[in-house]
Amino acid sequence: MGRYGYCPRPALNMEHVIQNTRQGRNCTRVRTDAPPRRAESESESDISGGCCGCGCGRASALSCAYDPGVVLIHLCRDTPLSADEAWRRLTVWERHADVVPLTRIQVVTEPPRGAGTVFVARTGVGPVAFDDRMEVVVWQAPRDGAPGLCRLVKRGRVVLGWAEIEVRPAAGDGSQVVWREEAEVRGLPRAFDPLLGRATRWMFGRVVDRLLSRP
């Protein structure tokens, strides 16, 4: 049903990404300030050629080039849901609190939701809690057979990085979901990256599956 992988890559040129997204390009090499680092193991998906990174071989709306040394999670799910419905289930942010333990979510900006929306996920109990503040910087809902793409940037003090949600119409009435997540915790030594990668892959795999399964 889904495939997993993660890879460290050089920094993404967001100006070029947004330009490609607005022009509806489906498989374009993203220009970067540094060339992609060669994968060192099979667990690091080679996505510089346009694959979403999950091993499916299909073209992504974004090719990947990310900061070296940062764990990047890729999740891929095929679903019988339409692209519009899958998009709705994944991007109504308050729904995420229903599937992430000990988490409350508050949208702090006014509607309509899209680029510029800010929400805060507070995870924990009492004083042992932290805020994960996120801002939507790219918002392109699926339309007329084109894939949808949402990119979030994490603005909190503890959890850093970004996430991308891509929803692609598939043959028939279904769709494919690709979730990319940069996993970085401030102050956590790089030696813990493999453990962080496994834990984050497991957690977000459950989140995506549960969001898609709930009306």
Write the SSE topology.
Elements (H helix, E strand, L loop, with lengths): L1 E5 L7 H9 L48 E9 L3 H9 L11 E5 L10 E8 L2 E13 L7 E8 L3 E11 L5 E11 L7 H21 L2
Antiparallel strand pairs: 1-2, 2-8, 3-4, 4-5, 5-6, 6-7, 7-8
Characteristics of this structure?
Alpha-D-Glucose-1,6-Bisphosphate, Chain A, domain 4, alpha+beta, disordered N terminus, eight-stranded antiparallel beta sheet, 215 residues, globular, 8 strands
What does this structure look like?
β6 and β7 form a beta hairpin. It is built from three helices and eight strands, in the order βαβαββββββα. The protein has 215 residues and is α+β, with helices and mostly antiparallel strands. The protein has helices spanning 14-22, 83-91, 193-213, and strands at residues 2-6, 71-79, 103-107, 118-125, 128-140, 148-155, 159-169, 175-185.
Shape: globular
Secondary structure tally, helices: 3
CATH class: Alpha Beta
CATH architecture descriptor name: 2-Layer Sandwich
> What kind of oligomer do you see?
single chain
CATH superfamily: START domain
What is Rg?
16 Å
**Gap from first CA to last CA:** 19 Å
CATH topology description:
Alpha-D-Glucose-1,6-Bisphosphate, Chain A, domain 4
The topology string of helices and strands comes to EHEHEEEEEEH
Mean pLDDT: 74
Q: Order of strands side by side in the largest beta sheet?
A: 1-2-8-7-6-5-4-3
Biggest beta sheet summary: 8 strands, antiparallel
Poorly predicted residue ranges: 1-69
Share in helix: 10-25%
* Count of individual beta strands: 8
Number of domains: 1
